[in-house]
Structures are given as C-alpha cells and as structure tokens.
Amino acid sequence: MDEFVGQPQLLGPGGALAGTLRSGNLTSMILWGPPGTGKTTLARLLAEHCGLHLITLSAVLSGVKEVRAAVEEARQRLVTGERTLLFVDEVHRFNKSQQDAFLPHVESGTVTFIGATTENPSFEVNSALLSRARVLVLKSLTRADLDAILDRGAATLGLDVTSEARALLCELADGDARRLLNLLEIAAQFREGDTLLDEAEVLAASGERLRRFDKGGDIFYEQISALHKSVRGSDPDGALYWLCRMLDGGCDPLYIARRVVRMASEDIGNADPRGLQIAIAAWDTYSRLGSPEGELAIAQAVIYLAAVPKSNATYMAFNKAMEQVRSTPAYEVTMHLRNAPTRLMKGLGFGKDYRYAHDEAEQYAAGENYFPDALKGTRYYEPVDAGLEAKIRARLERLRRLDAVERGAANHSGEGGESE
C-alpha cells in the first residue's frame, strides 16, 4: 500500500480510507474515477492489507451465473473463517437485476463488495446498492504522480528518458497511468539500440493525440457545462477553449450547435436577439459545410454570445409561466378575448368589449386584461437593464404606468357611481 501512487484524499493522513488502513476493517464501497487512476490496484491492495480473499469479476464478461458462483465460493470460505472481497470492475455495465443479485450477500456479510466505475454512480448504480456502499472518488493523476510512475516504468525497462520525452509522455497520458505505461512500452520499441528515450520516439509511438472524452459520459457533460457557463459568464476565451476541447475530443459539432442555440435563448435572450439568429446561422452553416469549415461558424457564434449583454429574463419568465400553468386550473378564455367568427358566437358574447390595440393611442389598450380573471395582474417577464432589453424594459414600464392611470380612473369612476 505504501507504493500506491496518488489519491492522497483517500490514502493520506485523514483521508477517507485512513481508518480502514489502521483498523483493517474493510466495508463495501464504490470506487468512482477516470480510467487509469488505480481503482483495480487499490481494490487488490485493500484485500491484501485487510487479509481478505479476493475474487475479481468484470461486468463486461460476467453475468448473474458468475456472481452466484463467486458468492458460493465466498460462502464456503466463510465457513472456515476466511472473508472475501468481491471486486466488480465496470460495475455500471451490470443492469438493474444483475446489480440486485449482490444485495442480499452484501447485507448478510457473505462478501465485502467493491465496485469500480468510470461513470457517475448516481445514475449508473442502483440506489439500494449505493445505500450499502460508500462512494469514494478517485482523481486524475497529477504530473508528480505520473513522474513517479514513469520513473518505475523506465527503471523496469532499463530506460533513460529525456526531459522533453518525459514532458510529452505525461501530457499524452492525460492523468491516466495505464496510458502512460502503454506509451512508454511502445516508445521503447522505436529506440535505436541505446537506452535513451527521446521526444521523437515518443511522438512515433503516440500517433494522433487523443484527449480523454467520453461521449455521453460525465466528462462530456462536464465540458458542455463549462462551455455554457463560460458563455454565460461573458468569457469568450474560456468558451472557445472548451469548444475546442470538445471538438478535439470527437464531440459531434451538431450537438454543440444545438446547445449554442439554447444558450442564445437562455442566457442572452432579448438583450441581443441577434444572438439567436447567429446561433441558428452557425448551425445551418455547419449542416451545409461540415467539418472543419463549419466548425469556424460555431466558434464565431460562441464568441459572439459570450461577448454580448446577457439576460435570462425570457428563461425565467417561461419557467414561471409554465409552473403556474401546471399548478392552476385550466381557466377558460375570458369572453372578450374569444374569437367570434359567426353570428351565433357574437350573440353569445364572444369578443364583446374587446379593444383593438391599433385603434388606441400608442397602439396600446391601457388597462386591458389578457389573463383569465383569476390570474389578473400576474407578471412573469422582468427585463434586465442591459442591451436591447433595457429599451424593452423602459417601454413596458411606461405602458404599465398607463395601465395604472387607466385603472385608477376606472376605480375613481366606479367609486363616484356608488356615491351617487
């Protein structure tokens, strides 16, 4: 365990596993982290440290049959006083019924369970299993961690690694020890008979550089979230970085284009309605040109949206209105707002007393109500004082003052009638 590299938040003094290492009492857990961060190695070392027999299953290759066989072996060993650690790699690949198969045996103590996953356990692991296991998060390895692992690998292979080759290997590894060692082994095959490994040999071994990017997984959603937040935060440089990270990692540009359209409505809105037009134009441009030409149009839209004034007033107003619609009765349309295309409908009062706004001053029927009577006076849209929306805000405030004057006059007239 002393030779394990990285994860001080788990194994360091005060780490999540410090108590386990002191007492030797291992409980069930889920190890969640990126590839090549030591999940399998940690499980093996914990079994050895705590004196447990280790049974390893891969969810890619195993099913309920293999789980039952492992549990039966654990049960037989328990009779002789030997406890078992059942380690399941890629546990997220088991379906619900397969994951359920662990529950009674974890509950009874027949096995101590450790599952490893690169996916978010909140979404990929049954809540019943989660309630019986701690979730421990492993992080990508740091440059110092990778250097330590590289030193061991180079010593094993009898290599000396130049500082340039070392920097490139650690960069290409991208926090993944497995990838680092694989690249080191492949690069060693390009040597010209000596023990020195240089940058050219690493480049020859690496092929095209591929960043870690899991389409549809946590990293995918983390990066699109970072892109969206950079646009919202008016940082075109940060937004451009995350856009390029996603494109470089193999994300479908059309997916990004759709999300950029969403950003234009959610975070820019009426502060600059051109943002939506530019976002749609970028989507259309990519659909016509494809990669790489069309990607520039998406970049243009991202930079524009990040740079212009922001407003989420439309987004907030829509959410408020939708929430009220879903939580209140389905009120009927008031009579004066109903269309009256027939004589019968007119006779029933449809459209009676409707005021045609274009016939009134400023094309506005001051004091008119366009809600069901029960919701009269409701307000959802609160424009911000930025960009074009500042002008919209000023106009609406002026119209609302006209409403107040009109309603005040109507109330005064009504009071006068009553007094008479």
What does the model show?
With 420 residues, this protein is of the alpha/beta class. The chain has four domains: 8-137, Rossmann fold (3-Layer(aba) Sandwich), CATH 3.40.50.300; 143-206, Helicase, Ruva Protein, domain 3, CATH 1.10.8; 218-307, Zinc Finger, Delta Prime, domain 3; 332-412, post-AAA+ oligomerization domain-like, CATH 1.10.3710. 55% of the residues lie in helices and 7% in strands. The chain has helices at 8-11, 18-23, 39-49, 64-79, 96-100, 103-108, 121-124, 127-130, 143-157, 163-173, 177-188, 199-206, 218-232, 236-248, 253-268, 274-289, 293-307, 313-327, 343-347, 387-419, and strands at residues 29-32, 53-58, 84-89, 112-117, 134-137, 160-161, 196-197. It has a five-stranded parallel sheet, with helices on both faces. Strands 6-7 form a two-stranded parallel sheet. Helix 4 links the parallel strand 2 and strand 3. Helix 14 runs antiparallel to helix 17 (293-307) and helix 16 (274-289) runs antiparallel to helix 17. The longest helix is centred in the last third of the chain and has 33 residues, at 387-419. Mean pLDDT is 86; it is low at 416-420.
Ends distance: 95 Å
- Shape descriptor reads elongated
Looking at CATH, the homologous superfamily of the largest domain is P-loop containing nucleotide triphosphate hydrolases
Look at the helices and sheets and give the structural class: alpha/beta
How do the strands line up in the largest sheet? 2-3-4-1-5
Overall mean confidence score, pLDDT: 86
Radius of gyration (Å): 32 Å
What's the helix count?
A: 20
Helix content: 40-55%
CATH C-level name of the largest domain? Alpha Beta
Profile the largest sheet.
5 strands, parallel
Q: How many beta-strand runs?
A: 7
What string, H for helix and E for strand, traces the elements in order?
Answer: HHEHEHEHHEHHEHEHHEHHHHHHHHH
